[in-house]
Write a structure and sequence with these properties.
It is built from seven helices and two strands; from the N terminus they run H-H-H-H-H-E-E-H-H. Helix 1 runs antiparallel to helix 2, helix 2 runs antiparallel to helix 4 and helix 5 runs antiparallel to helix 7.
């Protein structure tokens, strides 16, 4: 094809048809420009198609990992429900000066339990590595970033505070007053009668109960937020 155009150009120059040659030269330039634009358009289309494939795979990864996160958070919720329940029972017994009985050994073993807040971070790491704009929907992109940068971050913070309090205050108090017979199953007070008058221990029980209630409210809201993001992801995958 190139040889063909060169032949035409040479023929026009040799026959002295300058006007036709100029028109031909302009036409040839236009053909080259059009060819370049078409090539760029095809390349842009191919890149867009590749980006869509990457986006879809990334959203599927988010959906999978967020579903696993919900399962983990629900396990955490179950633990904090147990902690709150045991604290409530112990508070009632101690405040009302009730006699000790063997069923309390379980609650003395559970009241100071806590759970780490862990999430799956493979998808968010991939998103940060590829650039957040890989998610074409700005609304979905903002929802995902809010979940990880704000809600998850706050969840880690309160989990860290709870853990520090357990290490610095709860466990030392626990070990001074209670014999840990069997992990998360049986613990017996060294002197139950003295606990009936122990304001410090009572205040700590109430603090743990209140903190557990706060954490439960937060995790319930977090699960609802994650479910909302998963639903938005599924809608985006169906529409793409």
């Amino acid at each position: 094809m190139i040889k063909f155009f060169r032949h035409i150009r040479k023929d026009l120059m040799e026959t002295g048809k300058t006007g036709k040659y100029l028109k031909y030269a302009i036409g040839e330039i236009l053909l080259v420009v059009i060819g370049i634009l078409i090539a760029l358009q095809i390349n842009t289309w191919n890149e867009g198609k590749k980006a869509k494939v990457i986006e879809r795979e990334l959203l599927q990864q988010f959906s999978t990992e967020l579903t696993l996160d919900i399962q983990g958070i629900k396990n955490t919720i179950g633990i904090y429900q147990g902690v709150r329940n045991s604290c409530t029972i112990l508070i009632s017994h101690l405040k009302n000066k009730k006699s000790y009985h063997d069923s309390l050994s379980y609650h003395f073993a559970i009241w100071n339990d806590y759970e780490h807040f862990n999430i799956n971070n493979g998808a968010i790491s991939n998103l940060n590595a590829r650039g957040v704009d890989i998610i074409s929907s700005s609304e979905l992109r903002n929802s995902i970033l809010k979940l990880y940068n704000q809600s998850y971050s706050y969840g880690k913070d309160i989990g860290g505070f709870f853990r520090e309090d357990h290490i610095n205050f709860t466990y030392p108090m626990y070990l001074k007053r209670i014999e840990p017979v069997q992990w998360k199953s049986i613990a017996i007070p060294n002197d139950y009668e003295s606990l009936l008058e122990d304001d410090e221990f009572m205040n700590h029980l109430q603090w743990i109960r209140n903190a557990s209630t706060y954490n439960l409210d937060f995790f319930d809201e977090l699960v609802a937020e994650i479910e909302s993001v998963i639903k938005a992801i599924e809608t985006e995958l169906q529409d793409s």
